[in-house]
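Bug: token stream looks shifted between consecutive jobs. Job 1:
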Amino acid sequence: MNLQGVKVCSPRMQQGSGVFQSVRQRDRDRRRWCPDRPEYQLCSDHQWESRCPSGCRLQGLMEQTERQTGDRLRDICERTQRYEDVVTASMVTTKHIYNTNRKAIVKTHVFELKYVEFAKGLAWNLTSLRKRSAALLRKLNEQRSHVQKQIEDMYRQEVDIDIKLRSCQGSCNRSSAFRIDHDGYRSLHRQMTLFSNATEHQKNSPLKDIAKITLQPVDVGPPPSTDYKTIPIVQKELLTQFEDLEQNRVVLEEVLEETECLGSEGERGTGEAGVPECLIIN
């Protein structure tokens, strides 16, 4: 509220009580030269000279009405001044709260944007890493099959050698001591079984992609009114800058369907398993 915009109150606020004092002075002057008159009823035009009140009484009635109107107007102006003082104090408090919290709010807003960007890159890299791990697991299963076959071939050959050595002990001039390490082969067999069970369990577990974190705008109500933007302290202190900060909420959207890598082509490569290899963001 701008008190100077109330044209009726402006001269009275500038002149103080001088305007109202001048009305009282005129009333005292009127009593000195205007005699007291009895109350008269309304009269017609032909009764003007004999029954109508004198000019002094008419002037007194007008001044009385003016005085009453002035008292009411003064009360309105005083209340207007009190309201403006309250509004000014409220705007000063608003400015203090605004300046105190704006830095923290802007910092939080920037942090949210960076967090979502970081989470997006991390989801891409985690998805790539999981797919690369799955490819490496398939390769390990192939190697395990080869190792298992080699162990079986070695055990079979050692059994053949042991049989031949035993058969020639009576006819050979000299024989070498040979003993099959059955415990070692049983230990290898147990380890290969454990490894096979672990890989089968991981193979049967469904591989889910990482959910994507995004920001969605939130409707926080209508923007500030045009009248609010025209308040001098709002324009001076830039108390409408919060309109530049969009209100968001963090949500999980659709999962990633394809592996993507951040960075330039030089930062990308192909791993041993033949899948894209991305740098992990620290």
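Job 2, same session, no restart:
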Amino acid sequence: MGCVATTSKFGVSSSSSGSGESVPVTIPNVFKMKKEQAIAELRRAGVQGDISEESSLCGSVVEGRVIEMGEVCYQHPPGGRVQGSRLVVSIVVQTEDPWHGNVGTHNEWRLMPKLVGMTVDQARAEMSRVGFQRDERVQLVIADEAECKPNIVCRQYPGPLDRAGINDGKIIYVGRDPNERRHAIEEARPESVAAESSRTEAPRGESSSAPKPEPAPESFFTVAAEPAPRPERASSASSSGEKKKWGGNGAPAFRDEANVPQGPGGPMNRGKGEPCTDKIDHCMRPGVWFAVGGVIAGRQYRATPAFELDKKWWNWYGQAADYALLWRTKVVEKPSELVPGEPVVWLVQEDPRNKWVTNDFDALTTSRWTSGVIESVDTDTFRVKGWSGPIAIDTARVIVETKKAE
């Protein structure tokens, strides 16, 4: 039997049942090469079989590096592995703009720049340069940490090269001015003690009053001290004995020392935890409702997690929630709970490799929560009117109670 020619996506490769046997070849590493360059490199290495381009998405960053349009983000087998020369090699190529996505929608995002080490003004300018124009979405937090210096960014959220929603809040952390700390201590001491201290400490010829703290930078909409953890009620633990990092501690909503509303459940976990799947209620907390702008078939609205305090509704950045409707929701337990023609809230899957957020801070602040009207329901997925493609049922929440804006 003779040689049979087979056409692959990238040209013709030959195969044979009786001649030209496959020989071992070492697969080269083609990560971040342009597609054409990667194909040429694989052929030079002796790959004779098909080179298949998979339809998966790359996301923006792989192994800490931004994957530009047309570059390879994944290959199988990986570089360095030996396989037969006639076997298939698969690659995934970047087909999206890695820096800016969902343009013109409420889920529009850009990659966060690295801000650590910058001054507050430099961080503000850098945020503006990369496309984050809304200062009121950035919160400046004064952190009492040894490594944090006054007016210098020591931490940020979201992290460098993370996708951040244009309409989502961001946080930068700077150290407290030591003069401000001393002033606060003096204010907290009894007047007689403070006065005596000022008389003994003030050099001759200078005012004996405590030094006034430097005014906080005005570049960002909120300046607040990082809230100290509040006493927790009996907390539940995981099966491993570790403290649960989602669901809150049962504490009520409150205002912090800067009078900023803080949501129920106490401090939020900002570190990496377990994926916020439907099995753990998407990391929601008691008292969480979703604020939405309306419900019209064929249109989608952002669904913002919100809480009530002082007879008003707030998002988890302590800002007044903007809404036409408030929905109390629950995880979908079976497909029959999803009814065509009824509204639904779901977590948009921007990157197939990162289906879930991984801490309750992200779950309560992300702009990925979206609402729409159900069109049809299948076994594991459903469709929303005006939304392209099926949606995984495990990302959805059904409405159990509605309140209208007064």
